[in-house]
Structure formats: structure tokens, C-alpha cells
Amino acid sequence: MFLLLLNYLIIITMVNSFDVMTNTKVSVANTTTAVLTAEARRRYALFVNDSDEVIYLSLSDTAVLNEGIRLNASGGSYEINGTNMYVGDVSAISTSGSKNLTVVFDLHIN
């Protein structure tokens, strides 16, 4: 939101609050693994690779090795927030399978 007042530009930042954060983990297979389903109420999501192997994240319902968002082993992460809002399907894939992906997300209730 912008407001021009006496030749000064005042920027008002609208801060989104979170309702209830959900913490979960997904075991990522060596085939496409659903991580989050499309949800219009999504306001935030954080994905952290909690494994010893690279995981590839896809902002779609199909994940492909060596494509998409690379989450490096032992802490590689990706965040969806107000600056890059995405409410569609999220999927992931790993080379050998059974790799932990930590997921934190918020859905707007009101």
C-alpha cells in the first residue's frame, strides 16, 4: 500500500499474522511424493531437508530428480511466504528414497 502525502512517499507494510502452524515430516521416496496439496488458504510454508541426501522440491504435482528446487542435505531449505506466495501442489523426490523432509505450514482460518 502506498500513500503520497506532501511529496513524501510513505510505505505502510501490511503484516500477515499466522493462525496455527502445523509441523510435520514427509518421507520422500525415489518417486514423486506429495508434500502439500493445493490450498488457497496457505499463507506460509517452510521445507527443510532433514536427511543425508539431496531432495528436489517441485511446485507442482510431479517431482523429477535434478530439476526444481534443490534442497541440499542436512538442512537445505525453501520458504514460501508473502513475497513468493504459492498455493498449489508441492511434491518432492530423492535418489534412494525414505528421506525426511520437515514441513511447517500455516493455513489462514478467517
Keywords, please?
about 110 residues; mainly beta; Jelly Rolls; four-stranded antiparallel β-sheet; 10 strands; globular; disordered N terminus
Q: How would you summarize this macromolecular structure in one to three sentences?
A:
By secondary structure, this protein is mainly beta. It contains no helices and ten strands.
Tell me about the biggest sheet?
Answer: 4 strands, antiparallel
Silhouette: globular
The name CATH uses for the topology is Jelly Rolls
Helix content bin: under 10%
Strand content: over 45%
Number of strands: 10
The H-and-E topology, N to C, reads as EEEEEEEEEE
Structural class: mainly beta
Number of domains: 1
The CATH level-2 architecture is identified as Sandwich
Name of the CATH first level: Mainly Beta
User: pLDDT under 50 segments (min length 5)?
Assistant: 1-5
Query: If helices are DSSP runs of H or I spanning 4 or more residues, what is the number of helices?
Result: 0
Strands of the biggest beta sheet: in what spatial order? 3-10-5-8
Structure overview:
The model is unreliable at 1-5 (pLDDT under 50). This protein has strands spanning 2-5, 8-11, 21-28, 33-36, 42-49, 55-58, 69-71, 77-80, 90-94, 99-107. It has one domain (17-107): Jelly Rolls, CATH 2.60.120. It is globular and about 40 Å long. The strands form 3 sheets. The chain has a 4-stranded antiparallel beta sheet with strand order 3-10-5-8, with no helix packed on it. The chain has a 4-stranded antiparallel beta sheet with strand order 4-9-6-7, with no helix packed on it. The chain starts with a strand and ends with a strand. It has no helices and 10 strands. The protein is mostly beta strands.
